[in-house]
Design the sequence.
């Protein structure tokens, strides 16, 4: 009787770092069961709206097809990151990591603030320059920043105050509002 309890207990202790590498094991086990029994190539993990599980074999193709169904086209791969772009100009990054030899986890991050990123890029171009045309361009761009989120999305730092604040180069300060 002792051997029947001891051997599985030791196996569980030995494998627990692997089993619990992602925290709660239940969503992962549900995903593994759905992928093994079901007819689906990808499963959304419960408790997370943007993390998915696939089998490691052909997982890249499954995620590319999934993103294509959401209106994104694959542009390039950079390490474990897969970059996508939609026809409307939105970007998405899907990061990959192995859960085990047989299963992969994918985290989808969609960029919902692309116009703000355009402001950030334009400001990076005009702020270092000292000619009048760049000054006028920067002034117009800075006037489009109207709240804390706009300020952060334009690339300006968040001050570690309570509540957090963001200041633009033209001296305007925006305070984060809790929603």
Sequence:
């Amino acid at each position: 009787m002792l051997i029947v309890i001891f051997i599985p207990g030791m196996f569980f202790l030995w494998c627990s770092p692997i089993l619990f590498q992602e925290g709660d094991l239940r969503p992962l086990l549900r995903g593994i069961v759905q992928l093994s029994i079901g007819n689906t190539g990808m499963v959304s993990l419960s408790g997370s709206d943007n993390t998915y599980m696939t089998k490691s074999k052909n997982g890249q193709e499954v995620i590319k097809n999934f993103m294509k169904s959401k209106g994104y086209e694959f542009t390039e791969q950079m390490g474990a990151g897969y970059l996508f772009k939609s026809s409307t100009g939105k970007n998405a990054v899907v990061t990959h990591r192995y859960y085990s030899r047989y299963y992969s986890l994918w985290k989808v991050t969609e960029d919902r603030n692309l116009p703000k990123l355009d402001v950030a890029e334009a400001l990076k171009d005009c702020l270092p320059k000292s000619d009048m045309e760049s000054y006028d361009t920067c002034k117009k761009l800075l006037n489009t920043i109207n709240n804390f989120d706009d300020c952060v999305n334009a690339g300006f730092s968040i001050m570690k105050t309570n509540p957090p604040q963001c200041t633009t180069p033209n001296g305007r300060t925006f305070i984060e509002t809790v929603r």
Q: What stands out?
A: DSSP finds six helices and nine strands in the chain. The longest strand covers residues 91-98. The chain has two domains: 21-110, 114-175.
